[in-house]
Amino acid sequence: MYLKSALQTSHDLLAKSVHPGDTVVDATAGNGHDTLFLAQLVGHHGHVYSFDIQKKAIQATRALLENHHVETPVSLINTGHENADHYVKEPLAAAIFNLGYLPGADHQLATTAQTTVIAMQKLLANLRRHGVLLLVVYVGHHGSQQEQQAVLNFVTRLPQTDFHVMQYQFINQINHPPMLIAIEKR
Ligand SMILES: C[S@@+](CC[C@H](N)C(=O)[O-])C[C@H]1O[C@@H](n2cnc3c(N)ncnc32)[C@H](O)[C@@H]1O
User: Fold this and answer.
1) Distance 100 CA to ligand 1 centre (A)
2) Summary mean pLDDT of the chain
3) Which one of 29, 103, 127, 154 is CB 3.0 to 4.6 Å from 50, fit for a cystine?
4) Which atom of ligand 1 lies at the shortest distance from residue 115's CA?
5) Whether the predicted pLDDT of 106 surpasses 90
6) Cβ contacts of residue 13 below 8 Å, gap of 6+?
7) What Pfam families does this protein map onto (predicted)?
């Protein structure tokens, strides 16, 4: 199949826009797959900041990095991404959000409309030129419709002079396929 999923496409965009030595953010560490991918892209001269509100997500991410013998400096931060500005000061090549809940964990601990938008505002302010902010947006769980709507309201109002904004999604699938929102700083 030539048409890739939202998740695969998010990784393709990261692979294009992130280079060795870059600083990047995983806004939702979860089981660590995006953090690992980012760490491999930026290498040992780069830096990954990885946020999650759940201790078990931070632990799972740390274990995944250790299993892969990652040498990249990775800051695993057990707080909400809405606090990213307290930690991230450098210009960013990329930030990725994989919204929703940790598979197999409490669905109540999912990302929320308000905190996601606050985090996006803060991280967009740190994007370097041609840096990308990506969101893989899931619907179908409690609160997800409001979150998707809040994200869309926010990104469709970003000034065209400052950002390119795209939406990518399969539109004939019955089981709520995730949507990718991709934002590039001009
Ligand atoms: C879909 S999972 C992320 C999957 C992850 N990117 C991976 O590769 O395995 C969503 C994660 O967001 C976390 N989360 C929820 N609210 C958050 C917040 N305000 N800040 C940071 N993480 C949050 C959840 O705890 C959950 O682990």
Assistant:
1) 7
2) 96
3) 29
4) 19
5) no
6) 132, 134, 182
7) rRNA_methylase
